[in-house]
């Protein structure tokens, strides 16, 4: 319940007795809750006081009463749980918004269902217009149709229902895509088109294109889509971007997310974010990683550095590169071949020398480097490059490996020894588990896959995210996956690698703050830090495992402002 306290003579007497003047009164107070602060010197409290955008006091409800003034807004938590504002440690911000504006294929249980979704979209689309979607995953289908190539159907049934509309459907991971014949024609690709560096056009036994593209091969069709979009006016493009951003803000705030690590955008997107910040239209705090080639970075990186811009709403001090693809699409770069595709070890999506060049540029400009590495070969190469920089540096680098999903056992201790951050996504373990054994085999899965607790125990800082929209942005589902490793059938995926609830909350809060050099201003609830708070309907720190996923976000508070409140 929110209560606005009105001035009265009795209240004035209380102010005088407790030594609180109107100038000292808080703007917002939360009382009568269970507040888990993630501050070791004061682990729990009942209440907090906020003035402007800053926490000014944390303590008992009685202690915080002294901060209540005539105009103070008071939230009675009624025993519910409040935690530091949850931080999304790795996601794709505008892609979350875009996913709301294209075909959602995440719940499709078969290829036939996807064809039917596209067929329906064709009836609502003018001939020649593009149809786009995202979220399909062949490993999550109930059945695979006959005539597949490498476990994925060919384009023919899709092309039959959409002969006059180019169709481009991204895999859930974003590391593969499917195109119909019209899209491939628009891209100018044919059976004779060579595979690009770091990518594959999948062909059948006759050498014909199936429509499936892995990694950088997606760019053929993505570029054709971008050419088609050039007919849009600048105002139309701006309106589209703003709609994406608004959808993403709404999703983040309704899920208790107060800060978001945006894992890889171009310079123009940063310009857009800066414009939003200047307008005061950036409600979620963004920590942004620049994705660009080493040549582009060499020319532009220094001029894009932003620390705490827009009252701590926009920080740009990191670079993101990807050295391999995803395990689900057979794009992760492995030391040994895939168990279910012995002809392949996956893909190095950029040359090792290119990553090394990026590392040098990031180091010389005092930028953090964050590298997408999923396979054990990709992780080993990345650690080797990091180590070469760390050995000659006295900087506080805090370089990160994004995902760190499959590691050779020998490389696990290197994270802690070097000080490399393991930027993981707990929910990937439970989402991927049903097919990980097929990709890696039992021995590699057991000794190297999703080893969160082992990384923690060997000294690595582990931060946590969802990789949204690859997975749902919902931090409660991610919390449940991280602390239980429980699958839909009730089994658990290497339960010894679960994080405790305390570790998991740290991974969403103070560890994510540390991973963005912001632990001094966020990630825990203590006086002097930003007043970013998430209030939950249930105590996820103590309730039974089976109740966690029914927990809801009641309030999302950013900088002392209530930006989301659940209808009750």
**Straight-line distance between termini:** 9 Å
Overall helicity: 25-40%
Name the beta content range: 15-25%
Report mean pLDDT, rounded to a whole number: 93
Radius of gyration (CA) equals 25 Å
How many strand units?
Answer: 26
Largest sheet, spatial ordering of strands: 9-16-17-19-20-21-22-23
Task: Please report the number of helical segments.
Answer: 19
Helix and strand content put the structural class at: alpha/beta
Shape: globular
| Unreliable residue runs | 1-19
* Largest sheet descriptor: 8 strands, parallel
Task: Walk me through the structure.
The structure is a single chain. With 568 residues, the chain is α/β, with parallel strands linked by helices. Helices cover 34% and strands 22% of the residues. An 8-stranded parallel β-sheet has the order 9-16-17-19-20-21-22-23. The protein has a 6-stranded mixed β-sheet with strand order 4-3-8-24-25-26, with no helix packed on it. Helix 14 links the parallel strand 21 (400-403) and strand 22 (421-424). The longest helix has 23 residues, at 426-448. The protein is globular and about 80 Å long. The model is unreliable at 1-19 (pLDDT under 50).
Outline of the structure:
This protein is of the alpha/beta class and 568 residues long. It is 34% helix and 22% strand.
